[in-house]
Amino acid sequence: MSQNSFSTPMQRRTFCLGALAAAATLGCGGGGGGMTAAPPPPPPPSGALQTTDTRSGLLAEPVPTTRDYRNLGNFLLIRDSGGIYAMTAICTHMGCTVGLPAGSQITCPCHGSVYDLGGGNLQGPAVSPLVHLEVTEATPGGLLVVNTLKTVAASVRI
Ligand code: FES
Questions:
Q1: What is the architecture, at CATH level 2, of domain 48-152?
Q2: What is the pTM of this model?
Q3: How far apart are CA 148 and CA 90, in angstroms?
Q4: 33-76: per-residue pLDDT in tens?
Q5: Which atom of ligand 1 is closest in space to residue 113's alpha carbon?
Q6: What is the whole-number distance in angstroms between the Cα of residue 139 and the centre of ligand 1?
């Protein structure tokens, strides 16, 4: 009869399962060279993105009103006294997402840049204004569509 360090079949089974788990860990990158970083998060969608707002509905809101579409395509939809416009929520300093307007100001949480409601710079370090985006209606009177790939002048309203 041979001698081994396992006194019961259960101890032997436990040892074998542990050895398999260790082997699997090493095979999956435990050696260091095979480790891979988690993939970066996908970029926000871009292109023509349909909002849940209509022109008539948003024009019925008080001035100013901001709709938060940072989760849809990283932009803000704003109603001011001249109409409706969209503006990127991407800070022109280093690309952080700006906060929602507080009063008449939009602040970037990363380094403190401040913009006015039209995207103009009030305080650095950002030196460029927030970019305005094309706004159209999906159908006449229908939902508003913001194209994050088409910039327009800051004076454009619909
Ligand atoms: S990224 Fe906005 S202030 Fe730096």
A1: 3-layer Sandwich (2.102)
A2: 0.74
A3: 11
A4: 445 677 776 666 789 999 999 999 999 999 999 999 999 999 99
A5: 3
A6: 36
Residue 68: φ, ψ to 5°:
-90, 105
Q: Is there an atom of ligand 1 within 6 Å of 122 CB?
A: no
The C-alpha atoms of residue 91 and residue 110 are separated, in whole angstroms, by: 9
Residue 90 CB less than 6 A away from ligand 1? no
Q: 125: Cβ below 6 Å to ligand 1?
A: yes
Tokens of 134: 């094309």
Question: Is any atom of ligand 1 closer than 6 Å to the C-beta of 110?
Answer: yes
Residue 23 CA, chain-centre distance (Å), reads: 39
Q: What is the gyration radius of the CA atoms in the chain, in angstroms?
A: 27
What average pLDDT does the structure give for the chain? 83
Q: Where are the domains of the chain?
A: 1-36, 48-152
Residue 110: both structure tokens together: 């990363």
Return the minimum-mean-pLDDT range out of 37-46, 68-77, 123-132, 147-156.
Answer: 37-46
94 within ligand 1 shell (Cβ under 6 A): yes
Distance from CA of residue 24 to its chain's centroid?
A: 36
